[in-house]
Design goal:
This is UMP-CMP kinase. It comes from Russula earlei. Keywords: Kinase, Transferase. The longest helix is centred in the middle third of the chain and has 18 residues, at 105-122. By secondary structure, the chain is of the alpha/beta class. Helix 4 (74-83) crosses helix 5 and helix 4 crosses helix 6. It is built from eight helices and four strands. It has helices at 2-12, 27-32, 56-67, 74-83, 90-99, 105-122, 144-153, 177-187; strands spanning 43-50, 70-73, 133-138, 159-163. Helices cover 47% and strands 12% of the residues. The chain is globular and about 40 Å long.
Length: 188
């Protein structure tokens, strides 16, 4: 099943990568319409969505291995930021996670943007030539307004993968029935 999915993605996307937009655009054009930071023509961004236990991480892992994507998990970025000693958003993120609410989209979008810049600086190889790159954004957006804001500010996505599952699906090795039910309830 996984190889078929990977091949379908390859068939629809020109897996050529991501780069920062050309900052030498004319001031008149810039003032008429706001442009995203990364150019879609050079940035391959795939949103990977679905419920807990649906296989998002597994599929992302396969795409990273086979096609040299950078896997950016919104949840991992938020947890890392809440634990960062000098984070201005740490308390806010901690509160949102504890209460099961969505972190303000501006925070998550900024963390994703920063992670994309870091990947562009550190990754190399196929798909990362000349400032280009490939990004799997796992677990974001959670709502349509988040998708629109991300695409307006950062980069238009090339594709959305949505994995469906039901509550009976076994998830990660560290899951138990109670944690799956809780995560699935939050997802719904």
């Amino acid at each position: 099943m996984a190889p078929d999915l990977v091949q379908k993605i390859v068939d629809v996307l020109p897996l050529t990568g991501a780069s920062k937009r050309n900052d030498e655009a004319s001031p008149a054009a810039e003032s008429e319409t706001k442009r995203p930071i990364f150019d879609k023509e050079n940035a391959t961004v795939i949103f990977v969505l679905g419920g807990p236990g649906a296989g998002k991480g597994t599929q992302c892992h396969l795409l990273v291995e086979k096609y040299n994507f950078s896997h950016l998990s919104a949840g991992d970025l938020l947890r890392a930021e809440q634990d960062r000693p000098d984070s201005q958003y740490g308390d806010l993120i901690r509160t949102c996670i504890r209460e099961g609410t969505i972190v303000p989209m501006e925070v998550t979008i900024k963390l994703l943007e920063n992670a994309m810049h870091a990947a562009l600086q550190s990754k190399s190889g196929s798909g990362w030539e000349d400032g280009k790159g490939r990004f799997l954004i796992d677990g974001f957006p959670r709502k349509m307004d988040q998708a629109l804001k991300y695409e307006e500010d950062v980069c238009t996505s090339s594709l959305v993968l949505f994995f469906t599952t039901d509550e009976g699906t076994i998830g990660r090795d560290d899951d138990n029935i109670e944690s799956i039910k809780k995560r699935f309830g939050v997802f719904q």
